[in-house]
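Structure in, sequence out. Go:
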C-alpha cells in the first residue's frame, strides 16, 4: 500500500462530519487526569497485592494502546481501565498472523465483551512477497529502518509486521467510519490489533463464506450485501486487494469483510485497476459456482458499477 493510501483513508473519516466533531470533542476529555491515573495505579497495586486478575488474565491493555478505534466507542465495548483481558484460545493460525479470542471483562459488574486479537508475525515468506506488490512506492524515511528492511534483520521483520498492523488498523478505521461491514477496530498495540469478534457469545467464530452452501435466496442476499460493501469501498476510491470467500465472514445472515491490511487505492496504486478486477473476478467465480446466475455475477458489469461509484468513468 502506498503512503497516500493511508493519508486518503483519513478522508473516509470525513464522510461523517458529526462523527468527526464528536471524536474531536471526545479526544479533549478522554485523557485521564494525573490524579485519576495515580488513583488507578494505586487500585491496581492494591489489587495485585490482594489477588489481582484471575489466572490467565491481565489488566486490560486499553490504556496502553498506540491507537484506538473511532469514537463514539460502541456501547458493547468494555473501556473501563480496571477490566481484565483473558485469552480464551486461538481462532486461527495464519501464515502472516495468528488470530486469538480474547475476553475483556469487569468481573465485579458482569460486563464483558469478546474480541479478536490479530497478531502479525515478522518472519514470514508470504509477508515479504505481499510486501513487494502492495507496498510499492511507499516511502520509508529513516535510513536505519530502510537498512533493516533491506537486510531483513529481526528489527526489520518486526517493523514490517508492525506496518501491516498499522495499515490494517487504518483500513478498518476508515472503512468502519464510512459504514462498510467490517469488524469495529478496538485498538492497536505494536504488531497486535484488537477488533470486534464476529461470532456467537459462546465464542464460536462466524464461518467464512467459502464454508457455506447458501440456498438461492440466501445466496442472492449475500451477493447484494457484497456488492453494497464493495460499492462503499469504491466510493472511497478503494478495493479490498485480497477479496475472496475466505476473507468474508457470515454471521446471522450478515456479511462481514475482514483481512484488510493491503487495502488498495484504485487510482494511486499503479496496479489499482488490476486489483479491483481480480477482487471482482474472485467473488463472481465463487457466487457462480454456488449457483448465482452468470448474468448477475457478471464481472464486467460489477467492475463498471464500481468504477461509476469511484467516479472513474
Ligand atoms: N474479527 C474476527 N472475528 C472472528 N473471527 C475472525 C476475526 N478476524 C479473523 N477471524 C478468523 O481468523 C481468520 C484469519 O483472519 P485473517 O484473514 O484476517 O488473517 P490472515 O492472516 O490473512 O489469515 P489467512 O492467511 O488465513 O487469510 C479468519 O478467516 C477468521 O476465521
Ligand atoms: Mg485472510
Amino acid at each position: 500500500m502506498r503512503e497516500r493510501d493511508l493519508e486518503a483513508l483519513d478522508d473516509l473519516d470525513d464522510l461523517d462530519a458529526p462523527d468527526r466533531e464528536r471524536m474531536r470533542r471526545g479526544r479533549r476529555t478522554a485523557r485521564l487526569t494525573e490524579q485519576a491515573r495515580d488513583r488507578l495505579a494505586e487500585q491496581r497495586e492494591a489489587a495485585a497485592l490482594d489477588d489481582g486478575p484471575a489466572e490467565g488474565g491481565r489488566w486490560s491493555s486499553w490504556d496502553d494502546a498506540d491507537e484506538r478505534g473511532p469514537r463514539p466507542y460502541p456501547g458493547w465495548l468494555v473501556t473501563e481501565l480496571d477490566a481484565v483481558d483473558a485469552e480464551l484460545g486461538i481462532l486461527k493460525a495464519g501464515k502472516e498472523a495468528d488470530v486469538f479470542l480474547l475476553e475483556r471483562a469487569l468481573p465485579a459488574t458482569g460486563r464483558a465483551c469478546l474480541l479478536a486479537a490479530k497478531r502479525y508475525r515478522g518472519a514470514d515468506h508470504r509477508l515479504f512477497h505481499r510486501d513487494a506488490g502492495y507496498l510499492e512506492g511507499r516511502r520509508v524515511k529513516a535510513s536505519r529502518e530502510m537498512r533493516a528492511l533491506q537486510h531483513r534483520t529481526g528489527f526489520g521483520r518486526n517493523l514490517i509486521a508492525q506496518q501491516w498492523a498499522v495499515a490494517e488498523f487504518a483500513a478498518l478505521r476508515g472503512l468502519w467510519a464510512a459504514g462498510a461491514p467490517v469488524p469495529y477496530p478496538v485498538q492497536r498495540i505494536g504488531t497486535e490489533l484488537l477488533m470486534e469478534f464476529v461470532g456467537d457469545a459462546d465464542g464460536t467464530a462466524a464461518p467464512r463464506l467459502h464454508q457455506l452452501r447458501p440456498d438461492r435466496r440466501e445466496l442472492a442476499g449475500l451477493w447484494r450485501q457484497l456488492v453494497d460493501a464493495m460499492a462503499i469501498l469504491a466510493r472511497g476510491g478503494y478495493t479490498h486487494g485480497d477479496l475472496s470467500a475466505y476473507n468474508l465472514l457470515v454471521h446471522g445472515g450478515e456479511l462481514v469483510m475482514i483481512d484488510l491490511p493491503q487495502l488498495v487505492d484504485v487510482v494511486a496504486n499503479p496496479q489499482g485497476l488490476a486489483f479491483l478486477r481480480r477482487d471482482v473476478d474472485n467473488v463472481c467465480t465463487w457466487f457462480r459456482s454456488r449457483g448465482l446466475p452468470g448474468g448477475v455475477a457478471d464481472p464486467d458489469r460489477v467492475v463498471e458499477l464500481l468504477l461509476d461509484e469511484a467516479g472513474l468513468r
